[in-house]
Amino acid sequence: MQNGTLLAAIDLGSNSFRLEIGRYDMGQIQRVDYLKETVRQGTGLDEERNLSAEAMQRGWDCLARFAERLAGFQRGQVRAVATQTLREARNRDLFLARARELLGFPIDVISGREEARLIYQGVARLLPQSDERRLVVDIGGRSTELILGQAFDARVTESYRVGSVAWSMKYFPDNQFTEGAFARAEVAAQAVLDEALGAYVPGSWDSAYGASGTIGAVAEILAGAGRGSGAVTREGLDWLRDHLLAARSADRVKLAGLKDDRKPVIGGGLSVLRAVFDVLGIDAMTPAEGALRHGVLYDLLDREHVDTDLRSATVARLATKFEADAAQAKRVGDVARSLLRQLRQGAPEADLARLQRKLGWAAQLHEIGHLISHSDAHKHGAYILDNADAPGFAQPELHHLSLLVLGHRGKLRKLEADFADESFVHQLLCLRLAVVLCHARRDPDLQGLRLQAGPRQFTLAFRPAWARSFPQSAHLLREEASAWQKTPWTFALA
Predict the structure, then answer these.
(1) Model-level pTM?
(2) Percent of the chain with pLDDT over 90
(3) Which whole-number Å values give the CA distances from 70 to 49, 79, 103, 110, 291, in the listed order?
(4) For 305-446, CATH number?
(5) Distance CA 26, CA 253 (A)
(6) For all residues of the chain together, what is the average pLDDT?
(7) Per-residue pLDDT, 423
């Protein structure tokens, strides 16, 4: 990446939406601009986990404003990620369709563990380089992430469904602070976090850091009150709880460092933070400058190169774990990428490289379901991908791969896919043709084969003697032509 390139990360959190813009400079990203809006989407989930119209509109309005600031940015310079509220929302597709249109860029709903990994990257990148073992905690609006790591390596990542917005709504519904409400909120949070004890054993970290949100707010309050030197301590948490109880309601709280937009969720956030301290035996925690959005920015850099793209390592791990035939996967991948280059002749090289990389991953993983069942391998492979913890991947990216794996053979009408998405259709066709051409598990003869695209149609041409030399391949290709008749596209042999 060239020095001076602008990069942008958007974090669609449960409490706030944030936009971080940075300039790449010699391996580092320097802040250019930062925008934050308290959208509080997490309060808009009803009992059936549907976002209210008002919550969606607040989000859309914010993203429209962010879009104005991002005018002129290219797709590779921007990444937007959504977290717990949109992981939960049953009508998230309705929100996301309009949100993507307004923002002008894709929005990835990421898993809890992927959120945790990116949070750690953001924290680690903005801390001094060190070999210390780190515990990183991020208490968001509807989830709390815990990470154990060293240097830039996040070794243990987990996300728990407990957060400042959710706990404030449930245990402090009228913003009233009582001894009983705090007791119930802390016990409930401890019950959720208790399972962390098996992996986050006290003594397995040298320093504890708190990222963003609640922990940053509490640190500012304690600093404003002259309690400590910026760290969050047990004594400080006890003092803050006593102060909130004395005020009796959020409206009556007057504390230097407590912003108005944080008041409605301070009770829930504090109770969760106290539970984290108690469960993990923490005495002090240092607020960190880095956060999820910074991790997303640095992840954009890693994704630019194959050898630093964590997704490539994840794909290799899954292929090994499920004992996929590596030689066949490479064979299919080479053929599929070659066909895609023919099909998208004249496309920008960067766009082609991105599509080829993802097509290569699908080829690596297309047989992972064989470990479970040979006849239904494509179905099991797709299920694995839709439900796997896959570091580096957002949920839509994994689903895209699962559709390619599900569709690499058999009937096409089984795919609940968007056949208006030309890039996806091109990838799907090239993968299916590669599987056909490599059916004998040896390198196919591709001399003279030419794949071309027209409006909603494909044509595969081959030399006259080819069909006579490879009658089984020719038969499978004729069946492939029949399969595409039940889609909006046609595939013909010439």
Answers:
(1) 0.85
(2) 84
(3) 31, 11, 8, 22, 20
(4) 1.10.3210.10
(5) 45
(6) 94
(7) 94
pLDDT 10s digits, 61-71 = 999 999 999 99
Tens digit of each residue's pLDDT (9 = 90 or more) over 417-470? 889 999 999 999 999 999 999 999 999 999 989 999 989 999 999 888 999 999
Write the CA distances from 170 to 164, 186, 242, 284, integer angstroms.
10, 12, 20, 27
Q: How far apart are CA 214 and CA 141, in angstroms?
A: 9
Q: Which two tokens stand for residue 49?
A: 């986990």
**End-to-end C-alpha distance for the chain, whole angstroms:** 43
pLDDT band at 393 (very low <50, low <70, confident <90, very high): very high
Residue of 159, 431, 152 lying closest to 310 (CA atoms): 152
Torsion, CA 443, CA 447, CA 453, CA 456, rounded to 10: -60
Residue partners of 471: CB distance under 8 A and separation at least 6? none
The CA distance from 89 to 95, in Å, is 9
Measured CA to CA, the distance from residue 309 to residue 390 in angstroms comes to: 13
Q: Which residues does 270 contact at the CB level (< 8 Å), separation at least 6?
A: 214, 218, 237, 240, 241, 244
- Residue 77 phi, psi dihedral angles, 5° rounding: -100, -5
Per-residue confidence (pLDDT) for residue 86, from 0 to 100: 96
CA dist 463 and 467 (Å) reads 8
| Residue position matching structure tokens 């909120």 | 185
Sequence spans of domains, the chain: 6-109, 113-290, 305-446
Q: What dotted CATH number matches 6-109?
A: 3.30.420.40
Q: Is 410 left (phi over 0), alpha (psi -120 to 50) or beta?
A: left
The SS3 assignment for 143 reads coil
- CA 413 to CA 482: how far, in whole Å? 12
Separation CA 278–CA 274 (nearest Å): 6
Is residue 322 predicted with pLDDT exceeding 90? yes
Other C-beta atoms within 10 Å of 153: how many? 10
Top-tier CATH class for 113-290: alpha beta
